[in-house]
Amino acid sequence: DAGVIQSPRHEVTEMGQEVTLRCKPISGHDYLFWYRQTMMRGLELLIYFNNNVPIDDSGMPEDRFSAKMPNASFSTLKIQPSEPRDSAVYFCASSSVTGRQETQYFGPGTRLLVL
Amino acid sequence: DAKTTQPTSMDCAEGRAANLPCNHSTISGNEYVYWYRQIHSQGPQYIIHGLKNNETNEMASLIITEDRKSSTLILPHATLRDTAVYYCIVRVGGWGKLQFGAGTQVVVTP
Q1: Which of A69, A115, B16, B30 is 20 to 30 A off residue B24, Cα-Cα?
Q2: Quick check: A96 contacting B, CB < 8 Å?
Q3: Is A54 within 8 Å of chain B by CB?
Q4: CA angle A58, B104, A8 (to 5 degrees)
């Protein structure tokens, strides 16, 4: 398996523009997670899905952020409008529950810079 | 989820065992101990997890004290590629949200 795939790997945009980050989870996994990493706040969970349904979005910073999972093999995280404080590395992870345990596999991340 | 405490950093000589401590004194009975690591510029990588018993896999060993208030991750023969930030995470039930702290920066030197 190719692992979790994220695109783009790097994104530079200007403040006010819309940004869309994409994630393809590992085939057969039924959980999908979006995390954000910054120097100030470390790694923090934004939202996660189970069987394409959002389960916990309490980490989504504000209404400018939205996430969707239209099918089991694709998810997007959208920021509209983007702001400089959104600059971070965004990770997608996927997992499945095996024997009441789940191991999350992370993608390589998308490095976002908002100017 | 229980809070964890880890040293900020530690060094280890290549080829030697690296012992990474983690305190989780407020852990409750249904919380598991997980270890992940993050090599620079990469996504976090799962290492190992446990509930009460000691665990071993191809990457590492996890030793959990009898009272479960602390644990130690052991990398038996550290290599330069083990240089990374290591996160100890305590989680209820074994799935869902992972709450990452600051972790321990481990530097393996030749």
Answers
A1: B16
A2: no
A3: no
A4: 55
Q: Tell me the pairing of strands B55-56 and B61-64.
A: antiparallel
Contact (CB<8Å) A107/B43 = yes
Distance between CA atoms of residues A42 and B57, nearest Å: 28
A57: contact with B, CB 8 A cutoff: no
pLDDT band for position B12 (50/70/90)? very high
A74 touches chain B (CB under 8 A): no
CB-CB under 8 Å, A42 with B100:
yes
Q: Give the separation between CA B71 and CA B67, rounded to whole angstroms.
A: 10
Partner residue facing B98 (CB), from A4, A101, A104 = A104
Report H helices in A19-64: none
Tens of pLDDT along A34-88? 999 999 999 999 999 999 999 999 999 889 999 999 999 999 999 999 999 999 9
pLDDT score for A2: 81
Distances (CA, A) of A12 to A68, A75, B86: 22, 20, 29
Question: How far are the Cα atoms of A23, A100, A105, A108, B31 from residue B93, in angstroms, in the given order?
Answer: 26, 8, 18, 27, 6
